[in-house]
Design goal:
The protein is of the alpha+beta class. It contains nine helices and eleven strands. About 25% of the residues are buried.
Length: about 350
Amino acid sequence: MKSLKDLESKTLSEEFWEDHDKAQKIIREISELKETITDIKNLEEKIENGRLALEILKSEEDSSLEKELTENLTDIEDSLNDLEEKVILSGKYDSCPSVVNIHPGAGGTESQDWAEMLFRMYTRWIDKRGFSYSVNDYQAGEEAGIKSITFTVTGRNAYGLLKSEKGIHRLVRISPFDSSKRRHTSFASVDVIPFFDKDIDIKINKEDLKIDTFKSSSAGGQHVNVTDSAVRITHLPTNIVVQCQNERSQMLNKQTAMQILKSKLFELERKKNLEEINKVRGEKKEIGWGNQIRSYILQPYQLIKDHRTGIEIGDVGSVLDGNIDPFIRGFLEKKLYKA
């Protein structure tokens, strides 16, 4: 990681603003580093204040000082948690926006409804974090739910946080679509990749692309614009398919689809050879029993359990309303300390 001094020296170059996107990226890095330095200084001040208060309380009783010390210790804990998250999310691609795809497993309306519930959960989490999202592709289910949805999430360390959600999610509940009120198990897969900006250099041959245009599917809510210029791009060598129907022009849809395709291809290119690429493809497990990363049980009892970390939460309503930070943090901490 470059130092603050190194980054600031770049801004003094006469050519600094020739590449506006690169300059903006450096400015953001400088701002984030300065913010971290300020956070560390504030934490040091809180720790020193706490130490002094503790020294005073050793020699005399002071209820107001005790209360102040308790509040100070809570602030210190919160500040340490924030700094720890920054350390955990210092990976090469963690700061990137994220492309998320949700796809239901077998089961028709049941699993399609579950996919839509997951999408709602993530949008609630996005709102709580102060992030933003844009739906790139939306395919509605015939009766309810969604057949597939792809959306881009923008915010600080969006990919670093959401990468923990990649995998199979399992739901157990009394089906609202079953007149006999039987318990059903549904599955949906969540795929997460970093969304790379213009800095990424991926060579794509035009002859390797099949580009189709079509009319947008059903509205999908306020975040999808119904147009006649949706774009589907198929990368023939890898059979990767990307669709975009969110923008109001065919050109913008094509640009967004190409950027997502580049992000997907970059993920594969990191794997150096065909054998490694096949291993990456092999990570996409069947959307069914035994492969889930997390179970959401609504009946006969209420519990959400992450099978990778063992974290359990009984307040399922809170989680489905976007309170997934405990699962995200548990996953990231486990990876950090395992490394």
